[in-house]
């Protein structure tokens, strides 16, 4: 990975806007959840954005997290600690693939560089929030921690109507279709007729 100097101009402005989206309170809640979910063996990061990034950067904690949500059916088979950058990035991408197969949508996913290079840690927070919400919603016994930390996702509410109910519904004209009550052509003039201008003295 190439060393990068400070950003200037527009790129600095864009990066500062991205950095402002990072939520320190949310970081605290996510750390509490990850430690509760993966047991205290994963440790705790130093408070702050840099500590949070360094804690998750090698991908091991993230892989432990996704495996703890899956019960006996582990999505990430091997988790190895490595100091090499490409191995760490590979672990992060393994987590992302596993999270997607767990049910997190692609739009909620961060990119590997967002975490590894610290480009957008707010996106990392959003992905972890989506994962937590999904785990709470599934309610399969694998989620550990306070269920109030995450919102439950909306679930499908199917309704089955009988043929009789469906045919009755076809006979009713809904008000969305509009109404023709009270409509008449009174006062309408023929098309193309010029407007009469009468000059009354």
UniProtKB/TrEMBL annotation:
InterPro entries from the UniProt entry: Calponin-like, Calponin_repeat, CH_dom, CH_dom_sf, SM22_calponin
Superkingdom field: Eukaryota
Domain Calponin-homology (CH): 24-135
Region annotation Disordered: where it falls in the sequence: 180-201
Pfam assignment, any one: CH
GO biological process terms on file: actin filament organization
Any one Gene Ontology molecular-function term assigned to this protein's record: actin filament binding
Xref: SMART domains: CH (SM00033)
Gene Ontology CC entries for this record: actin cytoskeleton
Family note: Belongs to the calponin family.
PANTHER family the record matches: CALPONIN (PTHR47385), TRANSGELIN-2 (PTHR47385:SF20)
Protein name: Transgelin
Source species of the chain: Seriola lalandi dorsalis
Taxonomy of the source species: Eukaryota, Metazoa, Chordata, Craniata, Vertebrata
């Amino acid at each position: 990975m190439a060393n990068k100097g400070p950003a200037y101009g527009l790129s600095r402005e864009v990066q500062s806007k991205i950095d402002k989206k990072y939520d320190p309170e949310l970081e605290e809640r996510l750390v509490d959840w990850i430690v509760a979910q993966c047991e205290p063996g994963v440790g705790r990061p130093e408070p702050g954005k840099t500590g949070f990034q360094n804690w998750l950067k090698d991908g091991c904690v993230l892989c432990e997290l996704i495996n703890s949500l899956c019960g006996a059916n582990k999505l990430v088979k091997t988790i190895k600690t490595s100091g090499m950058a490409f191995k760490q990035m590979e672990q992060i991408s393994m987590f992302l693939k596993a999270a997607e197969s767990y049910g997190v949508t692609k739009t909620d996913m961060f990119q590997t560089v967002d975490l590894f290079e610290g480009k957008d840690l707010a996106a990392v927070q959003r992905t972890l929030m989506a994962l937590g919400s999904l785990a709470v919603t599934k309610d399969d016994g694998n989620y550990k921690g306070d269920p109030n930390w995450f919102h439950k996702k909306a679930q499908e509410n199917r309704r089955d109507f009988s043929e009789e109910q469906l045919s009755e519904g076809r006979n009713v004209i809904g008000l969305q279709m509009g109404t023709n009550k009270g409509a008449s052509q009174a006062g309408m003039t023929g098309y193309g007729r010029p407007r009469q201008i009468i000059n009354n003295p």
